[in-house]
Specification:
Length: 82
């Protein structure tokens, strides 16, 4: 099962693509603000690095706290959009 995991709750914008227990690609960039601008390009780069198209994803996971409301909203909205 291929899963895209997202974390925008705290002071980093992070994402990873895993297949079972194997990490195919992962990135984390420290930032206090600007998650909404960076998340989509970061995930696109991650998917390219993993060598996968978005339709290959079986699941999308996103952290839901603790963290700022805006950070939570960014991650959940992006996941829902996918």
């Amino acid at each position: 099962m291929i899963v895209l995991g997202l974390d925008t709750c705290l002071d980093a914008c992070s994402a990873a693509v895993i297949d079972g227990e194997t990490v195919l690609a992962a990135r984390s960039e420290p930032m206090a603000r600007g998650h909404q601008e960076r998340l989509a390009p970061l995930v696109r780069e991650l998917m390219i690095e993993a060598g996968l198209a978005f339709d290959r994803l079986d699941r999308v996971g996103v952290t839901v706290g603790p963290g700022s409301f805006t950070g939570l909203r960014v991650g959940v909205a992006f996941a829902k959009g996918l």
